[in-house]
Amino acid sequence: MRIFLIALLFGCLLHSIAYGAAGANWTKAGTPTWEARAWSTSVVFNNKLWVMGGLGTVGYNDVWSSNNGENWTKVAPTSPIWSKRYGHTSVVFNNKMWVMGGKGGGSSSYKDVWSSSDGANWKLEASAPGWSIRSGHSSVVFNNKMWVMGGGDTAVGFHRDVWSSSDGANWTLEASAPGWSIRSEHSSVVFNNKMWVMGGYYNPGMSPDFHRDVWSSSNGKKWDKITASAPWLGKFQHAAMVFDNKMWVMGGSGSGGPTNEVWSSSNGATWISATAAPPKWAKRRAHTAEVFGNRLWVMGGWSASATPFQDVWYSLSDIWNP
Asked: Whose CB has fewer CB within 10 Å in the chain, the N or C terminal residue?
């Protein structure tokens, strides 16, 4: 009986240590071979992590993949590839990776749409998709369509429009005034059969407006405000993911500069800070995040001094998979 009680107590202790660690405990996965960068994109495709493009000391249009987050391989293009860019978006749709929009080395942004089934051979699907040139937009895959939301460019202005496409070539304007205000460098996820838009900023007259509102929609046309003031700081250039049956918001920058705060929510209205102390990864903005191998990943970004990071971090799931 005594042995049984000791075993039971030990099991409970292990349980208390293992659970509640998601988003709080982070491990560095080494230094990747891709150059330090921010404003890149990432996806999970064919059982690999992928990082594409971005901006560091120079702009990039390279493609990197990894099957473990530690060892990275540069994918050599076998066809013309999209030009160097940052602030673009990437999704996985119809067994392909997609790259949309972004900003290049010049003064204006792009509005092109590219796809690839292997990261090496790329096809231009649309040079004039309907939506205007933009960077800092967000993209998700929902209801068998790709979606592009918000963003913009100083040359043509910024937006709050919502577009969808079932093939990447033909795009439909779903909403020109969805309820949420004009914004750029916000985040979007798909959670509980809805699309979500969170945070971002707008800079009219050089007076930045950093948002901390949360919106959701089941069709892209009608949007519901879930909260006007989430407890995380008003911010832009943050990362958002769905992990352990929750939405997560990580890092980003607001009026006080970059942060490394980590928040989660199961409903978009109530948010819980995942960290009693700041995570091991430094304060940052314009980083990227993914869920891969039952882990939550954070990669790259800008520091408070606008120095690009060359690092990869992960946090383990609280949900045990035998």
From this structure: C
- 83-98 in b/e form (b: 16+ CB < 10 A) is ebbbbbbbbebeebbb
Q: Nearest 5°: phi and psi at 99?
A: -125, 130
Query: What pLDDT digit, counting tens, does each position of 32-67 carry?
Result: 999 999 999 999 999 999 999 999 999 999 999 999
Q: What count of other Cβ atoms lies within 10 Å of the Cβ of residue 99?
A: 27
Task: Please state, as a whole number, how many other Cβ atoms lie within 10 Å of the Cβ of residue 227.
Answer: 17
- Taking the CA atoms of 289, 237, 199 and 159 in sequence, report the sign of the dihedral they define: negative
Question: Cα 181 from chain centroid?
Answer: 20
On whether the CB atoms of residues 22 and 244 are closer than 8 A, the answer is: yes
d(CA 245, CA 259): 24
pTM reported for the whole predicted model: 0.92
pLDDT digits (tens, 9 = 90+) for 65-92: 999 999 999 999 999 999 999 999 999 9
Considering the domain boundaries, does residue 2 fall inside one? no
Segments forming the whole domain that contains residue 134: 29-316
Number of folded domains that form the chain:
1
pLDDT score, position 206? 67
For residue 117, give the CATH number of its domain: 2.120.10.80
* Cβ-contact 100, 90 below 8 angstroms: yes
